[in-house]
Amino acid sequence: MASSSTDSSSKLYSAFSLAAALGAAAVAKKGLNTSWRAATGKNPPANPADPDVSIGEAVLWAAVSGTLIGVARMFAARRAAHYYAKSTGHLPPQLKKDGQDADKAPAAQS
């Protein structure tokens, strides 16, 4: 059973990670909107599902914005985990080893 200290630090990490990810997504979206206007001369689609938005523009907006915002959130979450580990001396419980070590991977089948 986890101690209340571990539970509270885990909750603190979750809150910090969420805030960092949301902040990063907001900054990325603002930058993306500015870049879209500079590149296309018009505002990004407010709702790509709107039939008045061309399918090409909707797909491009969805792909670019989804990728950029996802990457920004991932970097923010990694930074939060690094800060947590540096502050506490260990990774948060949510980020325990997940078996991705190459030397522990199953051998390839021939």
From TrEMBL:
Residues 95-104 have a biased composition (Basic and acidic residues). InterPro entries: DUF4235 (IPR025329). The keyword Membrane applies. The chain crosses the membrane at residues 58-76. This is DUF4235 domain-containing protein. Keywords: Membrane, Transmembrane, Transmembrane helix. Residues 88-110 are annotated as: Disordered.
